[in-house]
Request: fold
Amino acid sequence: MLLAGCKGSQSMLDPAGPSASAIAAVWWWMFAVALMVLAGVVLAWFLAMRPRAPLDERSARRVERRWLVGGGLVLPTVSVTALLVFGSPAGFHQLPLPGGAAAPLRIEAIGHQWWWEIRYPDGVVLRDELRLPAGRPVDIQTKSSDVIHSFWVPALGGKLDAVPGRTLTVRLQGDRIGSYRGQCAEFCGTGHAHMTMMAHVVPAEAFDAWLRAQSGTAAEEGKVP
Amino acid sequence: MSTSTGNAATLSQEREAQALHERLERIWRNPRGWGALAAVNHSTIALRFLVTGGVFFLIAGVLAMLLRAQLALPNHAFMGAEAYNQAFTMHGTMMMFLFAVPILQGLAAYLLPKMLGARDLVFPRLSAFGYWCYLFGGLIFTSSLLFGLAPNAGWFMYTPLSSNVYSPGINADFWLLGITFVEISTMAAAIEIAVSILRTRAPGMALHQMPVFAWAMLVTSMMIVLGFPPLILGSMLLELERAAGWVFFDPTRGGDPLLWAHLFWLFGHPEVYIVFLPAAGVVSTIVPVFARRSLVGYRWVVVSLISIGFISFGLWVHHMFTLGIPALAQAFFSAASMLVGIPTGVQLFAWIATLWTGRPVWRAPMLWIGAFLSVFVAGGLTGVMLALVPFNWQVHDTHFVVAHFHYVLVGGMLFPLLAGIYYWLPHFSGRMPSERLSKIGFWLTFVGFNGTFLVMHWTGLLGMPRRVYTYDTGLGWDLPNLVSSVFSFLMAFGIATVLLDIALHFRFGRKAPTNPWEADTLEWATRLPPASHNFASQPAIATRHPLWDDAALPQSIAQGHHALAEPGHERRETLGTDPVSAHAREVILLPSNSWLPLVAGLLLSALCLMLLTKLYLPALAMGGIAAVVLLRWSWVNGAHPSVVGSGDDARHARPAGLKLHPFTFDGPGLWGMGLTMMADGALYGSLVFGWFFLWTVAPQWQPPAVSPLGVWALPTTVLMLGLGRWLFRRVQLRLRAGLDRQLAPLLWSAALCGLLASALLAGLIATAPLAPTRSAHDAMIAFALCFLLFHAGLATVLAALQATRVQRGHVGAHAPYEPGVVAVFWSFTLGATGVGWVAFAFVPLAFAR
Reply:
């Protein structure tokens, strides 16, 4: 019942791709550790407020040092180091690093007030809709025609802003067939709340066939120069 | 009378103390009736800040209720998008700028002179002026709601959304002009608090003996001095872009929206620590009192406060992880953002250790401290999560972040503030708070707050972005939003109960005994409520816990056994001490009640309104009038008879060979000028940063083949200013040697140098081939030149004023103080012009084709 609440096509805890999966896993670890730390601190507070026999100078100093060094220095340093070391790699999936198997498909996501223009190679253009081949990484290049928007499909991975004057790239991959909701995540004016999109992850062959068919149509309609 | 608690004071001693009190009150009291508007006393001004901050808090809170009402149901039609966008922008902006910082500054303004053993803050008229700027600026800003023209681009006003292309109305201008007006108050208070802490502590209160709250406010004030100017600069640039078309953030003409983001967050991150550190100082003050032992790890805590101050300036990019920052930079800022958890943790465990090794008691303030602990730590933990870049990429701009920052702001600022208010209520009113009603208010607020914001983490993880006026059903967001909304009303009841409790206690609270909480710090040595002059005599301090070491201190102070007890004249004075060791150095003269702050505040309000309504020529005239009033204010200063008084008495030494500060070489104004120049430097530094930033990464940056600045104009200006500065040095050497002649000619010559420098800059602006509306390159240079011209012009005027004051006898070998203060301004102007030459003319040569 609790986990059913995690589902939902815009939930980042219902991942459909490697990046979102890695990040969701890091979240659950962080949540567990944070809960323990919070419980520990609150418990320490309650225990500290309880009346006890006064300590002599020596013992008091020892207790003080233990709290300051153990709690103030050691605990944060160890936790933070562990988090950085084990948590940061979750982000590598999204970095559009060169090299690797084949050059990923490049899709442009151009933000407008208040819709997404998704451009495929060979002149194929979709509106508020994204189609991805399952199991293959895709480089999404974000651009903006007006103000700053943010391209975000939580089931696939983290977001990347669409900044006017710039082209930024995020590498996303969908592994699970299905349709996932995305939404603009940078406040962009009155229509911001309605700037949503759907990302359809389809089998790779079906995607290739679709793209060929679409670009054929696009060529006929004179969209390809 | 609350000064005597029994055994030590005899009837005649009481009568003497009362007579002394009345003599001092005659000098220090506020005027009655309408004249109260001319009051400059810190307690009065501070209470005004506290009440006004509370009112803005309530207005912003009502806006939050509207937001929650709208979000309670999916596709709710309670508010449309435009109204909602105005509501959330105003809620955030008001809470940050009109509530959080001013109310903490008000608390500090009230407490610090008392904690430090001083009679007032060092710039009383500036305090009053700051209040008026805050009130008028806040009213102008808030009035936008009444016209339906409130800012609607979010509290961080990202461009291009906030530019005049996408926000064509006057809404964004309300933000840029109104908030910058209020920031005058913030900057003034910060500079005044810092100088007061450094120069008016009780003799013997060396830095390592200072209360932790004073350390917290010192660090906070320095952070404000350096952290607000980037936003002030950004606001000026954006307003210029909107009003005059100068290019700074438009990527099609050489600007960059990312420049705004950097300037905003360079301010924005230190801002949240500016809001937290004073609260941490309050906690460090209250916990030892209710643990009935001194704070554990005083030095650890002080080092932590200072560390947070420094580190917080190196974190700002963690608000920008999704804006395409290079990966290596993101990694650095990620690590730094987590590192700041260490000094925070040190303070946390110092408090726990203090309670553990003490004999704690539960009282009303401690409930709020407990709430602070749990809520703030939870918020800090989600903050560490947010610092991890990949997780940030998912939850940035979702309700997870909204939950996080409400946990750290409400937990880390509001709860300690309420703890402090309950703790110092007997000080404000002379009455004790209730125990019962305060508990009810506490629990309603605590449960209401957690109910609203705990589930909001979940809402964000389920994918709900922030700043959306509505949402579709079927995404799992319906129930969490409804829960948040219902509990928000509970929290509102809680806040209302707390306010009712505070209001009622003024009528029904039982009278407070002296030092009702048996605290250790000096503010409890005054009467409750305090006299305008705080202390009838100023004691010397030997340890960190003056009232624990000497419980009879309040009586000995009242009976005039300490310094500056005998006001045989009409002047307001307080001891001036060394910044590190706190040895008494001089007696600082403080101005009395004055209408100048109110008049200046009203003139600046008129200026703000004229700029807002685009009446630029009248605004220019109004600016001129305001400048005249401000210069007049600077005239009735220092050794001017209206401050010093007349007759021989004015020039005689005070206790133990101390002089009045205008008759020495040092005084609060020198320090105030120094800090103001640091702020000025932060502003100018942000400009130079912006210049190099645009040069390196702006998408369409196009520098011309030949620099429009020519070759000789700037170097000659630097030479002129250097000459003027050298002339000031000659003046100071003469004054140090006790020589009185030739001061005026030297100063007039310096003014002439300034005039020539100004003429050169003005000529450069008029004749250089600059097109600020066509390229960011030209706009940045034009802005820099205007900045330098303003400073050269002001330097000229100040030098001329000094020359005149020498001729009138207000400045000379007997009163050598002021030229040193003006010399600091000249040094800054010279340095800025030199840096400008290097950055805007010289370095670009290296990149020339």
Q: What stands out?
A: The radius of gyration of chain B is 28 Å. DSSP finds 25 helices and two strands in chain B. Residues 164 and 243 of chain B are 8 Å apart (CA to CA).
